[in-house]
Amino acid sequence: MRTRICLHWKARPKTRLEEFRPLAYLSLMAVREILTVPNPTLKEVSKPVDTVDEELRSLMDDMLDSMYAADGIGLAAIQIGVPKRVIVMDLDWGNGERNPRYFVNPVLSDPSENTLPYEEGCLSVPTYFDEVERPDRIRIDYLDYDGKPKTEIAEGMFAVCIQHEMDHLEGVLFIDHLSRLKRQRAVQKVKKLVKQREQDNAA
Ligand code: NI
Question: What global pTM score does this model have?
């Protein structure tokens, strides 16, 4: 079975977004630049977080704002240039709802033998999608937004998303699971896109 999932780029109506975000919230938003391939920072291995404090929560807030602004459903801190083991996610974002989740120092274990191919995308590899096969069920231990330890069993799209984001913490991108040819094609596509955006902005 082949399921198409755009891991970070779920479409949602623009008008809806305006309804969600009152002006007061907009003014507090801190949208940071998301790094794209081949930026070498994306290859860095992120370091564990010592304490979940206000500073870290502020980082998580910024990450969530940046993810929403880019129409994503998952983001790792390294994607905004911060090498900390922190992930934010919202699997309901594309459905017009908000259900933000935060994972600090996440650890995955007990992957299922059963794997499923999913069509993945990444905010650091914009407009490129390809199929990656991963276990469809996995255990995750982490600290939440308040620093409390949690354990969950992730399945389906949640399992795919958390594994994709965990890869970022190890400096691995979903295109690293593909052939060299496909990976080169993806990087070329992104380079071209970034150049085009720069030209558009300058115009
Ligand atoms: Ni990604």
Answer: 0.86
